[in-house]
Amino acid sequence: MLPEEIKNLIGKYQARTISETEQERLFRWYNEQARSATSIDNAEMQIRLQRIAGQLPALKSKPVRQISWVKWAAAAVITLAVGLAIYTSQQRDHPLDIVVQADSTQAAELVLANGKVISLDGVGQGDTLDADGSKLYKTSDGYIAYSFDGDLNEASQNYSFRTPVGTETKILLPDGTRVWLNAASELSFQKQWAVENREVHLKGEAYFEVSKQRNPQGRSYTPFKVYSAGQAVEVLGTKFRIQNYQEELWSTTSLFEGSVKLEILASDNRVDKAVILKPGQQSLYNHKSRLLDFKNISQDVPQSWRDGYFSFQGENLREVCAQLARWYPVTFDIDAKLPNGEYHGDIPKTYSLNEVLDILIHDNMNYQFSNKDNQIKVRLNRVKK
Predict the structure, then answer these.
(1) What pLDDT does 355 receive?
(2) What per-residue confidence (pLDDT) applies to 236?
(3) Domains annotated on the chain, with CATH
(4) Which of 212, 289, 295, 227 is nearest to 261 (CA)?
(5) Three-class secondary structure assignment of the chain
(6) Which residues face 282 on adjacent strands?
(7) Ranges of the chain whose pLDDT falls below 50
(8) Is the CB of residue 277 less than 8 Å from the CB of residue 235?
(9) How far apart are CA 289 and CA 241, in angstroms?
(10) Which CA distances in Å does 196 have to 39, 216, 223?
């Protein structure tokens, strides 16, 4: 049961009437409680975590959202940050010192059929860029719009939008479909696109808002199909996200509106199995075992990356580092003996890697970091006998 003083402080916090001194007291108590070991089971742990989050929401004016870590042995919840106030007032006694040399020249790109690469960084609002029979321009809401008006003999050649590490882009396709392309991803399609078919090929992660389009006869709608490693997703008009990085074991398809048909493909691209997803469902496909599973999702959490956040929904440290390596120009070498834990919450992508790791790695986690030539080694501290 919460102490009466803490109940009063929580009430003031939610009403925005809390003083600075009272807020520091509340945050200090909150972190002390989160660090204390417990013997609760996993179900009760999740209930407590949700209860804490509901009683003490992050301030809207602060950039860090709730970040928590679930201990691997005892079912203890350690809350690492709730709003910028906790991050700044609960600094580590020995902060990390991971200096990364970033590549400031990285930008989203269009790769032409002849291999020429055009940087999209220089396409400003109102500009029109001619590119090998195609036109690019930036819309008022920040999308790179694409259209083809070149030689029809070259219509079947492929173009690709590509986002190197640390970059993202928004694309408006000729049929009105909007695509958010996440970091380290690639979207490929034929130059004359959406005339007879609407097919794209995806490597990495993208969020789609698909526009309905009637076929040339006007009698029905032309399907929109996304091919990625080992699977295909077919829709008419809907909102969904695909995450299918080739270096990861699992790929996911998350549906937010409409319906999609998910096809699992055999090695010869024949359809091995097909399922229909409903809004609020996510498929999880294991490339190695070919296991297909499903879970329910919320409407907004899996899209946090579009709002400028790293989003962690139960990933362990290895999975978290894989996400960070697609944004910062680093690789991670992680000790195979590292215990598994879970991270929950969001951190702004505007933070330096050092700041992100400082939030994620708590003092009582027995980890050691070192960096050489942008390869970060994560090791367990060895206990001296």
Answers:
(1) 83
(2) 81
(3) 1-65+76-100+330-346+357-368 (no CATH), 117-301 (2.60.120.1440)
(4) 227
(5) CCCHHHHHHHHHHHHCCCCHHHHHHHHHHHHHHHHCCCCCCHHHHHHHHHHHHHHCCCCCCCCCCCEEEECCCCCCEEEEECHHHHHHHCCCCCCCCCCCCCCCCCCCEEECCCCCEEECCCCCECCEEEECCEEEEECCCCCEEEEECCCHHHCCCEEEEEECCCCCEEEECCCCCEEEECCCEEEEEECCCCCCCEEEEEEEEEEEECCCCECCCCCCECCEEEEECCEEEEECCCEEEEEECCCCCEEEEEEEECCEEEEEECCCCCEEEEEEECCCEEEEEECCCCCEEEEECCCCHHHHHHHCEEEEEEECHHHHHHHHCCCCCCEEEECCCCCCCEEEEEEECCCCHHHHHHHHCCCCCCEEEEEECCEEEEEECCCCC
(6) 254, 295
(7) 34-35, 37-42, 44-65, 69-95, 384-385
(8) no
(9) 22
(10) 61, 8, 10
Place of tokens 């860090």: 64
Q: Which residue has the tokens 């990390």?
A: 96
Which amino acid type is present at position 325?
Answer: A
- Specify the length of the chain in residues: 385
